[in-house]
Amino acid sequence: MRFRFLQLISAFLLIFAGTLLAEDWARFRGPNGSGVSDATGLPTTFGPDENVIWKTELPNGNSSPVFGKTAIFVTGSEGESLFTMALDRTSGRALWRREIARERQGQLREPNRPAAPSAVTDGENAFVFFQDLGLVSYGPDGNERWRVPLGPFNNPFGLGASPILAEGKVIMVCDSETESFVIAVDQKTGKLAWRQDRPMAKRGYSTPVLWDPPDGSGLQFLIPTSFELQARSVETGEKIWWVRSLTWQLKPTPVIEDDTIYVLGWAGQADLGNQEDLPPFDEIVSQHDNDGDGRISSQEAEAVLGKAALTNWYAYDLDRTDYVENGDWEVWRAKRKSVNSMQAIKLGGRGDMTKSAIKWQYYKALPNVPSPLLYGDVIYMVKDGGIVTSLDKRTGEVLKQGRLPEALDRYFASPVAADGKVFLASEPGVVSVLRHGKEWEVLAANKMDGECYATPVIMDGKIYVRTSKALYCFGNR
Ligand SMILES: [Ca+2]
Ligand SMILES: [Ca+2]
Hints:
Layout: H1 2-23, E1 52-57, E2 66-67, E3 71-78, E4 81-88, E5 94-101, E6 120-121, E7 126-130, E8 134-138, E9 144-149, E10 164-166, E11 169-174, E12 181-186, E13 192-197, E14 209-211, E15 220-225, E16 228-233, E17 239-243, E18 255-257, E19 260-265, H2 281-288, H3 298-305, H4 308-311, H5 326-337, E20 341-346, E21 351-352, H6 354-357, E22 358-362, E23 373-375, E24 378-383, E25 387-392, E26 398-403, E27 416-418, E28 421-425, E29 430-435, E30 441-447, E31 457-459, E32 462-466, E33 470-474
Parallel strand pairs: 17-21
Antiparallel strand pairs: 1-33, 2-3, 3-4, 4-5, 6-7, 7-8, 8-9, 10-11, 11-12, 12-13, 14-15, 15-16, 16-17, 18-19, 19-20, 20-22, 23-24, 24-25, 25-26, 27-28, 28-29, 29-30, 31-32, 32-33
């Protein structure tokens, strides 16, 4: 009887939590990373002099703001300082600002920055990650609750994934060329719940999404990883099922709807048609190991890989031994076989689901960093050069492709949608607005006064745009 009652209570809590998730923009890219809000009444035209509700200057950072019950949490960096700030949700006024000196200067490639991952919040507390420090939690008054040092990381481009919350845990994916792992720590104490190593994961940047299987087997989080999509248990971190059809360097966050996950991945040299079937390492050694030490030096590599290998040596010698050994070579072989794509994958199963799970794949005009947007029946992608491609979510067929005439730029921010509109922020700071539909059309191109790397936020009938200088709250005035 008591058990039944507890079941009923937890069912109720789950429904309640679901409702909160549907409305709140508490993590990177909003509800389960979808970028979609049910807000209405959003402005179509806005800018530094138009429809500004408030504006708050911020230190530099590529991270997006996240929304608690009364505060907005945002990170930034200046020199050696790593900032976390809380702003009043109504006025944008700074409530507190905390600073921690970074412990090191990890590898970064422009335009990545020390404060790239977005915070996540349970409504009251903030959880932030910096690659030069680790995980930190702040309470509602800015008091530091706990700190978990992590790193340094062997990722030549720096880290980019954001932490997420699930079942009382903070889950953080830390992917690099060596020693990739995912950890979960207790949200209250920072105590380690579990850690799982991910040996084949290389240079990853995707933030996971959550999926609750209808069979009641327990909440899973899904991470696009080098070469495969992984579904893992929130409780233990163990890998439950996977699909081996991904490219090697994953940046976008996938989106989930009903029984399908939509996964986008683009990486250099992996466009369809460029694949090579390279020989195994022992064959390479037998032909090119001139000094007979059983490994390939950079000089020896030139004959196998060409001159590019010498300027890009870090991409081959992943474990930084100055030589290519079997482990390095097997990753390179897998990279040269992998294919860039946008794909629809059926959720669920056990073990390797590659043969049965792929519904469709699309190979052209793929973005590098921006996540795909699923809005209604349409999938939107935006690629450098301002090329927007919309696909039918059921078949992957192209509905429309066109350019954003006033924003032929690079794109790092992910598209977001609400109110029948799609918002796309370009690197130099033009936020294009589309009328949503199979035959989408450009309604406006709004010029900001700074660069945009952060994905915009939609809450309370307003759109929030972070530029290199400030966070703007835009609404119909
Ligand atoms: Ca050698
Ligand atoms: Ca090596």
